Amino acid sequence: QVPLKPGRSLMDWIRLTKSGKDLTGLKGRLIEVTEDELSKHNKKEDCWIGIRGFVYNVTPYMEYHPGGEDELMKAAGTDGTDLFDQVHRWVNYESMLKECLVGRMAVKPIGAPKANILMALLFAGVLPEKKVLASSKDLTPRKYIFFSLLYFLFYSYDWFQTESLITIVIYTKQKDMNAELVIVDCQDKQLRGEIIIDDHSYLVEVDLDHAVSEDVAVNIAEKVGKVEIILNKKDDIHWKMLGQPLEGHNTFIKRTDRGLFYRKCKLVSKTEVTHDTKLFCLMLPKGTHLCVPTGQHIYLKQIIAGTEVVKPYTPVLPFLPLDFKEPPRQDGVHIYLMIKIYSHGLFTQALDQLQIGDNISVSNPEGSFKKSQVQTSEDLLLLAGGTGFTPMVKLLNFALTEVSCLRTVKLIFFNKTEDDILWRNQLEQLALKHERFEVQFILSQPSKDWVGKQGKISSSLLSEFVKRSRRDSKVLICICGPAPFTEQGVQYLKDLGYSQEEIHAFTA
Ligand code: FAD
Ligand code: NAP
């Protein structure tokens, strides 16, 4: 993110798009854009970018881009889809840039089929890895049909019925299948069941033949990787078919190639955590099965002044449980978000206006953190700045409950003032209760009464607090906070001799 000039906030951009000004220079006309034509618009004062087959004139948006003009210019005159997906595929550009739409990209001849089907075979254990990767690019049509057939034979779903139930069965062949890897939404006869397999996703998406009740059950046979989605028929009639396939039905593709799916959740409570931070409790719809994995975030979507705005948030627990005898189970019904309300924040101001009972759209989870990183460590060090504490909540709980090989768990929590410290009391209680856990608060703008540590993230502070419990102990350091805090922190850690593999930075 770069500092934007005054009058160049997202709200200012939304106002400009509603002003009726011609932002494309084409007076509302939509045109077909060839690659050649696109490439001519590659300057700051005349910049077009292609995203998913559509071309936008982003010249008027330059000064409003939170990532800066130079970032936007990287895609000038080209298809920027890959770059966009790498940086912020969750940003709703269709809504934000709709007034900048120049037209569609001219259709190119269709190339070789994607490697998805081959990847499916790979996961189904049908093909050895080398063969798949080597042959994915140049499939002849005959081979394509052959592999497609294999795909449907080995990686697919089945369904059956009783008088009152419909059961959809997916055989994933994944040994460690679990509830976090299955996301189901069933509303108004539309069923969407997504199975996450590493960085890929398999989808069952059907317009059901008949009505079902709101409740959905998911059964997982973890060892064999069998997933059952169980629906209750509204009427005791025999179904001739499951329903009509929808767009993404029976596909196995990279997760990043799937659009973000949202469902409406109800705000059930909002409680104060500090003077500016609140704990929002959202309730998932009855037909949804969704558990957000430790270390992952979701996106919230609101319509603000007629434009869809999306921001990421990291679910926490309702509180830090002190009793770690039982591994905590997510109830599968509620999502808790700890959110700081900024006095000039576009999204958080709108969020704060929500009333109990209002709805808000919540996406599927995303994020690159893997629990296995913790399971193989002896020391876990968590560096948090402000609300950068949020990913640490579930992580702490997981580490202290389920990872017995960890010798030390230490949270180093940076805040401006004492009043800004989130869940200070709970953290102190936790430290008293658990020998393995230690917390250190560091304030950058303390009052004169503060007797604790003060300062900003720095090499010297980190060398004081970030230490291995033994000379060669395996360490994992997780860091999250304002972007410059995280970036500088990672650099200091590297300067102190920690390797990239020992550091996980939470980012979007
Ligand atoms: P914005 O309108 O973006 O502004 C935020 C503040 O910055 C305001 O005070 C504004 O005046 C100021 N500001 C805006 N632009 C500039 C600028 N160019 N120069 C200087 N100041 C500026 N937040 C949480 O509270 N809880 C979470 O759990 C959480 N999880 C996150 C997870 C991820 C992966 C990421 C990337 C972020 C997360 N965030 C979280 C931050 C969240 O996504 C939003 O960025 C945050 O809520 C602010 O949104 P906003 O629209 O209200 O603020
Ligand atoms: P804040 O209160 O403004 O700052 C928290 C601490 O970080 C303060 O001590 C502050 O010191 C310090 N800090 C701020 N900017 C710094 C910088 N440039 N260099 C060094 N130290 C700096 O924080 P906040 O308002 O809660 O914001 C939290 C941030 O975390 C947001 O940007 C949010 O997007 C991010 N976040 C990310 C994720 C994720 O998963 N990626 C999750 C949650 C939150 P001073 O300001 O006094 O210098």
TrEMBL record:
It is an enzyme of class 1 (oxidoreductase). Residues 30-106 form the Cytochrome b5 heme-binding domain. Its main location: endoplasmic reticulum. GO terms for biological process: superoxide metabolic process. PANTHER family: CYTOCHROME B5 REDUCTASE 4, CYTOCHROME B5 REDUCTASE 4 FAMILY MEMBER. InterPro entries: Cbr1-like_FAD-bd_dom (IPR008333), CS_dom (IPR007052), Cyt_B5-like_heme/steroid-bd (IPR001199), Cyt_B5-like_heme/steroid_sf (IPR036400), Cyt_B5_heme-BS (IPR018506), Cytochrome_b5/Flavoprotein_Rdt (IPR051872), FAD-bd_FR_type (IPR017927), FNR_nucleotide-bd (IPR039261). CDD domains: cyt_b5_reduct_like (cd06183), p23_NCB5OR (cd06490). Transmembrane segments: none annotated. This is Cytochrome b5 reductase 4. Its cofactor is FAD. It catalyses: 2 Fe(III)-[cytochrome b5] + NADH = 2 Fe(II)-[cytochrome b5] + NAD(+) + H(+). Residues 152-243 form the CS domain. It comes from Leucopsar rothschildi. PROSITE patterns: CS, CYTOCHROME_B5_1, CYTOCHROME_B5_2, FAD_FR. One of its GO terms (molecular function) is metal ion binding. It is found in: Endoplasmic reticulum. Its EC number is 1.6.2.2. The lineage of its organism: Eukaryota, Metazoa, Chordata, Craniata, Vertebrata. The gene is Cyb5r4. Keywords: Endoplasmic reticulum, FAD, Flavoprotein, Heme, Iron, Metal-binding, NAD, Oxidoreductase. Residues 260-372 form the FAD-binding FR-type domain. GO terms for cellular component: endoplasmic reticulum. Belongs to the flavoprotein pyridine nucleotide cytochrome reductase family.
